Amino acid sequence: MKMLINVAETVVADALRGMAAAHPELTVDVENRVILRRDAPVAGKVALVSGGGSGHEPLHGGFVGPGMLSAACPGEVFTSPVPDQMARAAAAVDSGAGVLFVVKNYTGDVLNFDMAAELAEDEGISVAKVLVDDDVAVTDSLYTAGRRGTGATLFVEKIAGAAAEEGRPLEQVEAVARRVDENSRSFGVALAACTTPAKGSPTFDLPPGELELGIGIHGEPGRERRPMMTSGEIADFAVDALLTDLPPRNPVLVLVNGMGATPLLELYGFNAEVQRVLAARGVAVARTLVGNYVTSLDMAGASVTLCQVDEELLSLWDAPVSTPGLRWGM
Amino acid sequence: MLDADFFRRWMTACAASVEREADRLTALDSPIGDADHGTNLQRGFRAVTAALEREAPTTPGAVLTLAGRQLISSVGGASGPLYGTLLRRTGKALGDAAEVSEEQLAEALRAGVDAVRALGGAAPGDKTMVDALVPAVEALSTSFAAAKDAADEGAIATTPMLARKGRASYLGERSVGHQDPGATSSALIVAALEEADGE
Predict the structure, then answer these.
(1) Alpha-carbon torsion angle B153, B156, B162, B166, nearest 10
(2) Is the Cβ pair B171, A223 closer than 8 Å?
(3) Which residues are CB-neighbours of A175 under 8 A, at least 6 positions away?
């Protein structure tokens, strides 16, 4: 597999150096692997810190900026960051109003953020934590690691980020973040597996003419494999899985998210099918976002995330945001 | 009796074994995980080796706590906190003694494995590192060789299991038929005890 890299060992550091050059409005600490708002800490404002394995760009580093994250901590590819990174980020962005950790629900992320929270609290920083677990493909059970955090992470970071920007206190920002997670569901499909730089070959073997249903964002295979389906059939399947799990009473935000290697032409076509199914099921759509936001390296495929919103959450979604990956209203 | 040198040799043997087996660990992690287990442990044990040379701890407990801290600060993922906790808690349980008996090591390692179980929430049979570590600790009171065999058997026994913890758990039934990479690396770490002893 050909890749636009120097060597696998330096892909994360190389990308951070490039990010620093492209985004002077951010502070990128390449050595310690922390991306910060240049104006942090912002007086009186709750800070949002997230992070996770690299390979999901623009998540999380591309969502640092006014109206969204205060800092992001990238780990190695598909490997959660280490506690030292988040503790350092928390110390750098805390204004005294406290820090909210936004954590995707994977064992590694949870353990490392927990350890980081202990380190930060030892330094006198108030830390709250919200787990994002929106992936309906994982059968939720006491006996598994629970649902994965995927597309809803964008909704949580944007909406809670707006709440923090308004100057709300930590427990309110945390409550908003939790409400977004509880009202969000995602489902993803892969048409081709991704290739990690370290391995150099596809992470799983998907023959031509077949697709994986219920994939995550780390190149792990899905729960079920089927003969290839059309965009319309995939939309029927995915939206049905989402609505079965959470029949919305309110209008929804829709994220049609590319996994990295699927062209926007296909994503927009897929969005048309998703909107057709939602309309047929009587679900009102408040806003729609289409693009590559929570990716899985060069995986081909897409995920659909729905988040049902009341007026408060919708107005926080519409609030201005200025980050490399998401920008409107300012 | 086992002194700080023995524990240094143990960590060096772990590092060498992880270097040798990195590709196999990553290959095992590919069908049921995300194909990085070998790479991540390589990074971790290189940091351990460097820190042991730099700081030259003088007691068994200090060697293991330093090694555990390095794993937590360099590996990431779930394996960093889990293996880091295993070594740190084992090291703490050994206290400040300049030398420890094999029985004391077995007791301390049991405390380390208990901490891993508490942190990760895994029980035997969940297809995780616990499936190699628990039988190894039981067999350690007999000999290092017996612990190695028990850990190997424990790792092999994960193949038919359905994963209930960690990333393989997302696959449900499709996790069956693959040996768990975490149990496999745990068996390497246990096997390194015998190597350290034989030198």
Answers:
(1) 90
(2) yes
(3) none
The count of structural domains within chain B is 1
Provide the 8-state DSSP code for B59. Answer: S
Q: Is the pTM of this model over 0.90?
A: yes
Structural domain range at position B127: 2-198
Chain B partners within 8 Å of A148 (Cβ): 170
Share of chain A above pLDDT 70, in %: 98
The 10 Å Cβ neighbour count of residue A180 is 29
Query: What are the domain boundaries of chain A?
Result: 12-182, 184-308
**Among A82, A144, A219, beta carbon nearest to B74:** A82
Residues A9-31: pLDDT tens digits?
A: 999 999 999 999 999 999 999 99
The nearest CA of chain A is from the CA of B36 a distance in Å of 7
Interface pTM, i.e. ipTM: 0.87
**Domain A184-308, CATH class in plain words:** alpha beta
Kindly identify which residue of chain B lies nearest to residue A217, measuring between CA atoms.
Answer: B34
Residues of chain A with C-beta less than 8 angstroms from the C-beta of B165? 107, 144-145
Inter-chain touch B170–A79, beta carbons under 8 Å:
no
Let me know the angle formed at the C-alpha of B61 by B120 and B115, rounded to the nearest 5 degrees. Answer: 15
Tokens 């994250």 belong to residue: A69
> Any idea what the CATH number is for the domain that residue B102 is in?
1.25.40.340
Q: What is the CATH number of domain A12-182?
A: 3.40.50.10440
Chain A closest-CA separation from residue B61 CA (Å): 21
The whole-number pLDDT of residue A144 equals 67
Q: How far apart are CA A174 and CA B32, in angstroms?
A: 34
